[in-house]
């Protein structure tokens, strides 16, 4: 069930039913196609790659994408503004950069990218999620979407490479630009939970190449683990949005107990705690 598509089709049906004459009916239909385009890229926000046995691939709509918005991510205002400014320039047809969001796990990197797609969907922004083992398709994916009347973010979650892996070379070739430059309607947004910056490893040509790849992202945004005060603020804000009636003191006391046994301080831990509180109170 694709809620996003169903919602739009129901709204279109109601407008068509209420049309007074043929001209208004025509205007409603043409207005719909003008706003959303046609086919799967018109109606869906996000896609993943489905590989075929013959070595080809197809775009598959993601029907259950989280409806999160940037306001749902408490704190990280500087980070969200950098991401928003870059994306806004992109959807407006201005120069924009590939973006790397890096830092501690559970701090909202992936959530920020999903939220940005939700925010700018009506402006023609779409997302294609690609996994590391699919980087070999990057050039073909870009060729398939470069002439579309949409702006695409190619999204790579948890970008990290082990010593023996070579997939990053496909990404490096696309970012740096080979014979064919990357089209203006495509950007790469990636997240990474670690930065490989150890000085004692700089002798390795492989590590040097990986570091040069990181430096090719025009915008890098750091998401660090919140302080305890920031963690409590995230907890209380999320709890109030969820309708929780516990006092701030009770919430902070229980949240402190929770994080000690559930992975430590992070935005993800705060969300999990609030979900637990709302289910048990």
Describe this structure in words.
The chain is α/β, with parallel strands linked by helices and 281 residues long. 47% of the residues lie in helices and 14% in strands. It is built from 11 helices and 7 strands. It has helices at 3-18, 22-36, 39-43, 77-91, 109-120, 138-145, 168-176, 205-215, 228-241, 248-261, 267-279; strands at residues 46-51, 57-61, 99-103, 125-129, 151-156, 186-192, 219-223. Strands 2-1-4-5-6-3-7 form a 7-stranded mixed beta sheet, covered by helices on one side. Helix 1 (3-18) packs antiparallel against helix 2. The longest helix is centred in the N-terminal third of the chain and has 16 residues, at 3-18. The two termini are 31 Å apart.
Could you give the topology of this structure?
Elements: H1 3-18, H2 22-36, H3 39-43, E1 46-51, E2 57-61, H4 77-91, E3 99-103, H5 109-120, E4 125-129, H6 138-145, E5 151-156, H7 168-176, E6 186-192, H8 205-215, E7 219-223, H9 228-241, H10 248-261, H11 267-279
Helix pairs in contact: 1-2, 4-5, 9-10, 9-11
Summarize the structure.
With 281 residues, the protein is of the alpha/beta class. The chain contains 11 helices and 7 strands.
Largest sheet: 7 strands, mixed
Strand content: 5-15%
Task: Extract low-pLDDT stretches.
Answer: 196-203
Count of beta strands: 7
The structure class reads alpha/beta
Shape: globular
Radius of gyration: 22 Å
Instruction: Give the spatial strand order of the biggest sheet.
Output: 2-1-4-5-6-3-7
DSSP helical segment count: 11
Mean pLDDT: 85
Span of the ends, CA to CA: 31 Å
| Approximate helicity band | 40-55%
What's the order of the H and E elements? HHHEEHEHEHEHEHEHHH
């Amino acid at each position: 069930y694709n809620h996003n598509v169903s919602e739009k089709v129901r709204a279109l049906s109601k407008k068509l039913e209420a049309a007074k004459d043929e001209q208004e009916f025509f205007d409603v239909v043409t207005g719909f196609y003008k706003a959303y385009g046609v086919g799967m890229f018109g109606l869906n926000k996000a896609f993943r790659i489905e590989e075929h046995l013959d070595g080809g691939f197809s775009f598959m709509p993601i029907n259950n994408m989280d409806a999160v918005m940037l306001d749902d991510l408490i704190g990280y205002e500087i980070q969200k503004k950098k991401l928003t400014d870059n994306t806004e320039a992109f959807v407006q047809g201005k120069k924009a950069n590939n973006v790397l969001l890096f830092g501690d796990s559970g701090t909202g990197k992936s959530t920020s990218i999903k939220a940005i797609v939700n925010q700018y969907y009506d402006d023609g922004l779409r997302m294609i999620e690609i996994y590391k083992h699919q980087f070999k398709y990057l050039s073909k994916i870009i060729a398939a979407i470069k002439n579309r009347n949409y702006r695409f973010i190619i999204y790579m979650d948890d970008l990290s490479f082990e010593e023996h892996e070579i997939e990053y070379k496909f990404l490096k070739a696309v970012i740096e630009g080979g014979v064919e430059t990357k089209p203006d309607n495509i950007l790469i947004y990636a997240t990474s939970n670690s930065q490989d910056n150890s000085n004692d490893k700089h002798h390795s040509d492989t590590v040097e190449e990986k570091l040069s790849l990181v430096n090719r992202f025009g915008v890098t945004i750091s998401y660090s683990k919140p302080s305890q005060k920031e963690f409590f603020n995230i907890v209380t804000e999320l709890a109030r949005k969820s309708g929780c009636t516990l006092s701030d003191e009770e919430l902070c006391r229980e949240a402190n107990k929770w994080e000690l046994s559930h992975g430590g301080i992070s935005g993800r831990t705060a969300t999990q705690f609030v979900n637990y509180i709302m289910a048990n109170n």
